[in-house]
Design goal:
The complex is a heterodimer. Chain A is of the alpha+beta class. Chain A has 10 helices and 5 strands, in the order E-E-H-E-E-E-H-H-H-H-H-H-H-H-H. In chain A, a hairpin with a 2-residue loop joins strand 1 (16-21) and strand 2. In chain B, strand 16 and strand 17 (384-388) form a beta hairpin. Bound molecules: flavin-adenine dinucleotide (FAD) and FE2/S2 (inorganic) cluster.
């Protein structure tokens, strides 16, 4: 079908690079992502591999390129291999479990600091922002959280994949991504009004307003449905 | 990996026609034109890509080869490693699968007072749910109604959908949105709290609710947090490899397989919810896929062997716009919202050839046809595609719209040096969704008693074609029903518990043997088949 190259010899005409997976050397095509590099090298991934598209945050990877002392991080499914890359995956971060009942919380300014007291220990190093593969200003939303600006924290943190890399770097042991999650839940539950049109519709459904029409549709012949469908008005 | 000089040249043709295309909608197809393009170009119509099942509850029905291969395979479990009558764990409700459907079922079963265990193959939330970007449908606006929603669903599914299931889908929809709203899911809203809603392919009302372009991720983050907060027992990296039945042939638990230690765990349950998602990683007809790593149709295999009927398995949804370039993101989904915002498909000559918001099957077929006519663009990898003219979005709605409305999409391409605000995206249909699955009734129960099925693993709601935004809805509607009903069933069973068995597996294997099918492949496959084990890639 679409792709006749699939079964071709993979290494033909490709530039190869050396990567070091947990210290062991493998030579792989330079066009691969780190994730595909692992697989090319013969690994079968179980941990550290989920959506393969930058959405689930399962594939946090730490790496360093030879000659450079800086430790870098990225999502294995979204980062290309480089020559002399030394890498390992960090698919799990032993975060402590924080449990709350959203119903019993409030959207007031102390709520985040009450649930996550450690946020006030932020030393302002910005390591969290620097490692975020989504380029979220993590320290900034933590600052909002400390000041009780729940909605701002929710907005700023929205693109978080919960990969946990921020937390691995935090000298104050803050679980940034969980703070972010609670800020979004508090914001949505307590700080924006509920949708009135939704309540109205629920009431109508409960009162059986649509029952007769639904019955009629469910029993309609195919021809009737086709006719209705082809002649329906479009907003 | 930005565009090659050859591709850059071709992009100029797209740029040249853009001003004329602005403000001029391409005509929608007539019903006859739609039929024609589907019959001649949709992968579901290629007869030799399908075969009839030789064994099991759907014997004689048509399946894609890739699905038939794993259904007509032998059991992967090693029976010598466990004793079904020495359960490691006994619970009321066992939920299999940790995506949105499984999470919703767990929450409802727990709320109903059941002792719940959720087992999932990868991390909790590593699922198709987390990848959904576009949105979730619900008829909750004054101009809309469940009846109008019903008609859209039926038309989209070519009137093959099972009416009672569609009724459940559209009638529960507003309540699902309310449930999520109350749980603190961050929907796009205006300042007075009204939902901002848009069109999707095949909708007649603007009923697509979204959470920027991380709708599925936001829903998953929320329901997962709630499961964790309620202390529901979640076991990760544990895949179900077989269902267990009781003396009366009812579902009564599962054999789990620890993906890391390779040990088995027998779980006895009074009822079972199967929410294992789809089959994208079977790569039917060698298509790339938008699906997550664990989408290997395990649930179908388990249910089928245990005697549950499947439905609509001869129809697969190819999303019209998967990425064809760069190679690293092949198959990656370009959310329909990009077309919803006004990006249109364009051929190698810079011409539009199809209305940009036809239903998915029609839109995909039109793109396949355009490439077959030689009007496609070839990527360096050899993969063909057509342009999706994303810069139209900024022209139509103003600069900055792309970053604001589809940040995930923008970021994903920027990582590979493609700026979708300025350049079009090269796209080709990608294997996206399993339209069919385990046949259920409107209580989410399969034809096997005590086996409830929810989400992409189930079949019937969407008929032969699903519309965008109805799947996130379906997993929650049916997930909640499955959870509630499984809990009620567990209560009814009054703690009586017979002996467990896997004799259905023996019987199934015997049937295979009698049908002359050799032991080649073991299933469920759990992770995508490596090329050397894939019977489709062997000569
Ligand atoms: C890229 C993409 C974009 C999409 N966009 C939209 C959209 O905008 N709107 C919409 O409505 N729908 C969309 N969909 C479809 C929708 O997201 C999915 O159909 C839906 O989320 C499926 O939910 P689920 O709970 O049934 O399955 P999943 O979310 O896939 O969850 C299944 C879970 O079961 C686990 N599992 C699998 N096998 C086993 C086993 N043997 N044992 C234990 N666990 C197992 C998996 O690991 C996974 O965690 C999209 C899908 C994709 C892939
Ligand atoms: S595998 Fe999901 S983000 Fe990389």
């Amino acid at each position: 079908m679409t792709k006749d190259v699939k079964n071709q010899e993979k290494s033909q005409g490709q530039n190869m690079v050396d990567i070091y997976i947990m210290g062991k050397k493998y030579t792989v095509p330079d066009s691969l992502t780190i994730m595909k590099g692992f697989e090319y090298a013969g690994y079968t991934l179980i941990r550290g591999c989920g959506c393969r598209a930058g959405f689930c945050g399962a594939c946090s990877t730490v790496y360093r390129v030879a000659g450079d002392h800086e430790l870098k991080v990225g999502l294995a499914c979204q980062t290309k291999v480089e020559n002399d890359m030394y890498l390992t995956q960090i698919p799990f971060y032993p975060a402590h479990k924080v449990q709350y009942q959203l119903d019993e919380l409030q959207g007031d300014t102390d709520q985040l600091a009450e649930t996550f007291p450690e946020i006030t220990k932020c030393v302002g190093c910005n390591a969290c922002s620097n490692v975020c593969p989504q380029d979220i200003k993590v320290m900034k939303y933590i600052a909002h959280a400390i000041r009780g600006e729940i909605s701002k924290a929710a907005d700023e943190s929205f693109d978080c994949l919960m990969c946990g890399l921020c937390a691995t770097k935090c000298p104050a042991n803050i679980l940034q991504y969980k703070v972010a999650l609670l800020s979004r839940r508090l914001h949505s539950r307590y700080l924006v009004p509920g949708a009135e049109h939704l309540q109205d519709r629920l009431k109508e459904i409960e009162e059986g307003k649509y029952d007769a029409e639904m019955d009629q549709l469910m029993n309609a012949s195919r021809e009737e449905l086709v006719d209705k469908y082809n002649n329906r008005d479009i907003e | 990996m930005s565009y090659t000089p050859e591709m850059r040249e071709l992009i100029k043709k797209v740029e040249a026609t853009r001003p004329q295309r602005l403000g001029h909608d391409y005509p929608r197809m007539t019903p006859e034109e739609k039929q024609d393009v589907l019959k001649n170009h949709h992968p579901d119509y290629i007869q030799e890509q399908f075969r009839e099942a030789k064994v099991g509850p759907n014997k004689g029905d048509r399946f894609p080869h890739e699905v038939a291969d794993i259904l007509e395979a032998y059991a992967r479990m090693d029976r010598s490693q466990f004793d079904v009558n020495q359960p490691d764990k006994e619970v009321d409700v066992l939920v299999i699968g940790g995506g949105g459907g499984g999470a919703a079922a767990s929450l409802m079963a727990h709320e109903a007072g059941a002792d719940v265990m959720m087992a999932t193959k990868l991390r909790f939330g590593d699922a198709n749910t987390v990848m959904a970007q576009g949105g979730i449908q619900a008829a909750d606006k004054p101009t809309d109604s469940p009846a109008i929603h019903y008609l859209d669903v039926m038309g989209g599914g070519h009137y093959t959908n099972i009416p009672e299931l569609v009724n459940a889908l559209v009638s529960d929809a507003p309540d699902v949105i309310r449930w999520l709203e109350k749980m603190g899911c961050m929907f796009d809203k205006d300042s007075s709290g009204n939902m901002k809603t848009k069109h999707g392919g095949g909708t007649s009302r603007m009923r697509m609710h979204s959470a920027r372009d991380y709708t599925g991720a936001e829903i998953m983050r929320t329901v997962r947090d709630e499961v964790i907060c309620r202390d529901i027992n979640v076991v990760e990296f544990c895949a179900a490899v077989e269902l267990l039945l009781d003396d009366n042939g009812k579902a009564a638990g599962a054999v789990l397989y620890n993906m890391e230690t390779e040990e088995y765990m027998v779980v006895k349950a009074k009822s079972v919810v199967l929410a294992t998602g789809g089959m994208g990683r079977l790569h039917t007809q060698n298509f790339p896929t938008s699906n997550h790593y664990g989408a290997t149709a395990d649930g179908l295999v388990l249910a089928y062997r245990a005697g549950a009927k499947l439905a609509f398995m001869d129809t697969v949804q190819y999303h019209p716009t998967g990425a064809s370039f760069p190679e690293q993101v092949e198959g990656f989904l370009i959310t329909e919202k990009v077309r919803g915002l006004g990006a249109t498909p364009i051929n190698v000559h810079g011409e539009q050839f199809v209305y940009h918001l036809e239903t998915r099957d029609v839109e995909a077929s039109a793109i396949i046809r355009e490439c077959a006519r030689g009007n496609g663009i070839k990527a360096p990898s050899g993969m063909a595609g057509v342009w999706l003219d994303s810069p139209m979005i900024e022209e139509l709605h103003g600069e900055g719209t792309i970053e604001k409305e589809v940040p995930a999409m923008y970021r994903q391409f920027a990582r590979f040096d493609v700026d979708i605000r300025k350049d079009p995206i090269l796209v080709y249909p990608t294997l996206h969704y399993q339209n069919g699955g385990v046949l259920i009734n409107d209580q989410a129960e399969s034809t096997l008693e005590n086996l409830f099925v929810a989400g992409e693993a189930s079949g019937g709601i969407h008929g032969r074609n699903r519309l965008m935004g109805n799947s996130l809805l379906d997993i929650l509607v049916m997930g909640r029903r499955a959870g509630r009903n499984a809990a009620a069933r567990a209560k009814d069973s009054n703690g009586q518990s017979g002996k467990l068995n896997v004799s259905h597996v023996d019987a199934f294997e015997k049937e295979l043997k009698e049908a002359g099918i050799d032991k080649q492949l073991l299933s469920p496959i759990l992770i995508p088949l490596p090329e050397k084990l894939n019977p489709r890639l062997k000569d």
